[in-house]
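so my prof wants the structure for this chain in the tokens format not the other one, which i didnt know existed until like an hour ago. anyway here's the sequence
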Amino acid sequence: MKLSGLLKKEDIFTGCPQSSPGIMGDKFQLLENMSRLILERAGFSPEDVTKAVEAILEREKSMTTGIGENVAIPHASLPFIKEAIGAMCITRVGIDFDSIDQRPVHIVILLFVPKNQFQQHIRTLAGIARLVNEESFRTMIITQNSADDIWDKIVEKENLDGKTNPENGFSA
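here's what i got, hopefully its the right format
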């Protein structure tokens, strides 16, 4: 599955944590707020939202999802999620995520995936990691000023990658 298939434009937050209302705080507050926003918007019950927040925070406490190169991909698999759902937060300042390279995170891609779809989960994570692996792409995303601009760059990159190397996509 492509990143553009997981995200909606309205779930791309720019200026985090400094300028986006409701997103301020450390990485745990950021993850909680992002989770609540996308899951409430998607119509999940308050109980399921609470379970999802607990799962994503527990996952982050057990091991950082800061994969290095200024990127974090926090993720959790949940039994009540029927289709993968995600959000993205971009910050030029950076957030301490205890990343494996100890660098601040500028791109946070939050994912919730169905519990019983392990292979899809792994392929989705790998595809996102490939997408953000290129430094020029990360820089381009970080320097965009709006969710629309970020969305356009993601779609453009996915289309380009799909044309040059069909195996580089996110197909499940």
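also thought this was worth mentioning. Confidence is low (pLDDT under 50) at residues 18-24, 165-172.
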